[in-house]
Amino acid sequence: MSQTLEDSAKQRLVIENVRPSVDGGAFPAKVVSGWPVTVSADIFCDGHEVIAAAVVLSDGSEHRMRHLGNDAWEAEVRFAGIGHDRFAIRAWRDPFGTWRRDALKKLGAGQDISVELQELDALLAPMRARRGEGAEMKALKTAAKRRDIDTILSDEIAGFMARSGPRQSLTLSADHRVHVARERAAFSAWYELFPRSLGPGDRHGTFRDVIAHLPYVAGMGFDVLYFPPIHPIGQTNRKGRNNSLTAEPDDIGSPYAIGSDEGGMDALHPELGTMADFEALVAAAQGHGLEIAMDIALNASPDHPWIREHPEWFERRPDGTIKYAENPPKKYEDIVNFRYYLDGEAPNLPLWSAIRDLFLFWAGHGVMVFRVDNPHTKPFPFWEWLIADVQKRFPEAIFLSEAFTRPKVMKRLAKIGFDQSYTYYTWRNTKDELTEYLTELTTEECRDYMRPNFFTNTPDINPIFNQTSGRPGFRTRVIMAASLSGNWGMYSGFELCEGEPLPGREEYRDSEKYERRPRDFDAPDSIREDVRLINELRRSEPAMKDFRNLRFFPAFHDEVLYYGRFDPGTRSYLLFHVLIDPFRPAEFEFEVPLWEFGLPDDASVEVQDMLQGNSFTWHGKAHRLELDPVERPYAIWKLTPPGGVS
Amino acid sequence: MSQTLEDSAKQRLVIENVRPSVDGGAFPAKVVSGWPVTVSADIFCDGHEVIAAAVVLSDGSEHRMRHLGNDAWEAEVRFAGIGHDRFAIRAWRDPFGTWRRDALKKLGAGQDISVELQELDALLAPMRARRGEGAEMKALKTAAKRRDIDTILSDEIAGFMARSGPRQSLTLSADHRVHVARERAAFSAWYELFPRSLGPGDRHGTFRDVIAHLPYVAGMGFDVLYFPPIHPIGQTNRKGRNNSLTAEPDDIGSPYAIGSDEGGMDALHPELGTMADFEALVAAAQGHGLEIAMDIALNASPDHPWIREHPEWFERRPDGTIKYAENPPKKYEDIVNFRYYLDGEAPNLPLWSAIRDLFLFWAGHGVMVFRVDNPHTKPFPFWEWLIADVQKRFPEAIFLSEAFTRPKVMKRLAKIGFDQSYTYYTWRNTKDELTEYLTELTTEECRDYMRPNFFTNTPDINPIFNQTSGRPGFRTRVIMAASLSGNWGMYSGFELCEGEPLPGREEYRDSEKYERRPRDFDAPDSIREDVRLINELRRSEPAMKDFRNLRFFPAFHDEVLYYGRFDPGTRSYLLFHVLIDPFRPAEFEFEVPLWEFGLPDDASVEVQDMLQGNSFTWHGKAHRLELDPVERPYAIWKLTPPGGVS
Q1: In angstroms, what CA-CA distances link A424 with A389, A418, A452, A454?
Q2: Residue tagged active-site, from A94, A303, A373, A559
Q3: Structure pTM?
């Protein structure tokens, strides 16, 4: 018999289907520092002995699991700090628990247990009184000696022995990896703007203009302020307004064509200001509770300094020209791509390092949130290495993946380290579409590694729905983005109900990508009060934090989405009704989910209308409500179920 | 930069979600020698290059995968031989495929591709003409030199380059383990009988009596003949008839209390015959196409020789008595359990080896099929080691797990090596219950490792349904067991519609476990013709082999189960209607699944009634059928859809 069999034989209990887990441990599950995490597993042993199990954290602390039935066990734990961590599960046979269970059954059947009491002596013999357990241990040993069955079988002794009794066949699971992030990785509200648009009149905006605008952004309750690229913009093949191939002399170009004689991805556009101005902005934002998020777009304009300095970082064609980006037959001649692999095989590691150093450079200037443009067109191993390396030096760094592509590609980017992911939210409009998509995000395996960021719009996406929805559709899309997802975002102008498209396109007319777009932020149609309200609710109600608590409830109308966000631990219970149709009112029945509180269908529950502020009582399960696109396109309720029940 | 990054960077493509796979590779997936296996995976790369992929078997053969869309790929492969094997997936970027796709798009848009043709030269430069590819390679190089675009873009060259063109970023998956079994592991029909009952009149049956009975068993189309234990039976605390605690002098005892002065688990009950008789039976059975399956029940009677010879293999109590089996407050004083672990911790390896040697002993006497009694009350690591060790020496050995217990425990036994598993079939009676259970078995992850064996009944289970169903219920339960599962079994007497219970129990009255039970196998109510018919169909129709091809179809009646078994490769298409209610006829509509053949709802399909033998045509999708408990409790149809469509 080999030593291997001796070892494997000792793993007598089965610990399987451990959650959270990603691809059988190939990637860490994502958790948030300080947030509760439910660790679950299927645990069992051969035979009929009583067993017990616990989650063990890397600090050695043990968290007992409870049996839910059908061999499913779980415990709630919390990870402290940020960075990579791990947990394991240990399970064991509990000989005292088995002895007690069987003794109770035999006594109940009137059987003699004198031999069983001798077995108890043998079971207790190896146990010594440990510090702090002396009294209970002594009481048990005395009771065993005196055959004092009532004491031996008492709840006190049972509790003591569950904690301190012998453990048999102790079995340890493999380590399971987690990545612990700070809360903003999972719970954030983003506002996107182009700094160059903030100058008054025709003047190019500056970082100082952004500082002056911070109260407006912070006043709506956002906590991340995100800019498209703020670097020098190329001249060669510069795009004109509305993406025209020829730029007029006064066209300012797309900020995504990065690099000119004035510098590249580690430089600032000179008209925006100096590095000192930028650092002043980062500091001022912080004073308003805002973090600056930077856009990392790995697109070089043909004028980027690296092309001169590092020709080996770019592909060339047989005719000697540099290879520009294309999606045949479309050509993007204002952008050239990096050469991540040499001859398609060996990684171009000096380039990889240089890009990594860009992130480190901006992190060194106070930027800890990075929105990465089109990560799916760069190699996966590159991102996996880069994110781990940056977060090793700056554990608080957060990466948002801007990959609007196929589902498995988006999920892979999340697995390999992106903390947040853009989503299909802008293309999910009907009740069915939203229900199906959110059910996937909150209940399928991706819930363990993918954190959606629901943007209502972006400079690239002028949602078809909002092109005709009018103000009601802007209000409901904001409310849903902010209450269905832990992270959400809005690109400037959405709060002003801007939706004019290039005809037949999902693009904005006069897109801000190619020109300045000054706005009147005090326009009367602004929905900033809705934005402020929902962001305020996100901050005040614990139920709004972990979006995976989302549950859909029955509202009997095809145009009404009805859902809840419940946090029993803090008794934070919210219900949302949203009218999806922006044109027609809806009157409908809905069910108050009394069953979620263990209440009968005729129970009553206190409720507060979070828009109007008034409180009242809902009697029974069935209720009617009317929503109206203009007057009341959504309703938010805070429930207070009878005390003690949760 | 570490070497590790250089290596991981080369894994540029993603190969994930590989199937078949069990618990992320913790256990081998189960396959059958020579049967088709669909290997699938999600495969993709960053960017937009054309990629390709193949399954690689351990003999080095490469089987190209096809892209199903949404990054899902699959290929059909077959494993030869029996024993442990493995496969891997390799994927790569196809530079010629990408070049060709883009060139076609550019030409379609009227763009010049002269620089692209220079790129083609560079792409082809490293390629040399290999043996057998000389002509195509030469043609391509000539065409490239001449700028002969039509030839370069021809289908012939595309096919040649898909086979032989350069591969970039070649990425290899991990090895995925499979266990390859002979067909009987997945496809078998079992008949169970007590040899001792086969003697005429009051005489104890013998192996010779079994030999005389073989034509009856083989005539019904079975291929495994299985006996409860055939070893000497203990005297101490022997159970009497109907499980009474006191045996009369002439009571023959339960064969599950194994061992007496006449020998233990490696001996034969003297009244059944000698080892020579047994070997003669094994040989005679083989002549009838039957394999003998032995019952391995690790229950020693208090008289088993091992108790005397190896006292350390059994638990003792403080009063010096040997520990008998119990499920408090119930006691099983005719059976003692083995001591698999010493002090509950170290494996009792001499005992483990001795039990392993029992399997080897019987395998040495020609038994290659083992039904293991209550494996879930013995340690999982013990079985995992034992099965692997026995199958290393006897790769054709098959293990059936008799674990009627919680689902996860049953599944674990299948994962660790049991080839077949008893199931909940006897407790699944309604249309909903059967549909839900079969959907789990055929579509959930257990399909990769658990092979159900649907027994209609066992000596321990007299199904409640059959206690009152009368003959119609015996017929339908046989038909469903044999057509819903690859493996099925029947315990003697079921074909005679025996169902008299101990009142209020799921047990047979006068159970054969405790007494002989001679039968008139020619009784007029026998349903052996149904058994013969379904076993014959299983042998003649390829669609009956892999039970995972099961599909349910719409029959608009709550008491009618309607399903299909289709094997497109051999054009074997069967439909089954089964009337579950044994008392009332049912007339109902059903849909011929024309959509499965890509046919419109008004198409016609040839159909043969497999009971009556006549053939005719079904026109259109909707049809009516009447089933009747007595005249026609089930129908079986063989379809012949229009040729070429499959």
Answers
A1: 29, 17, 9, 8
A2: A373
A3: 0.95
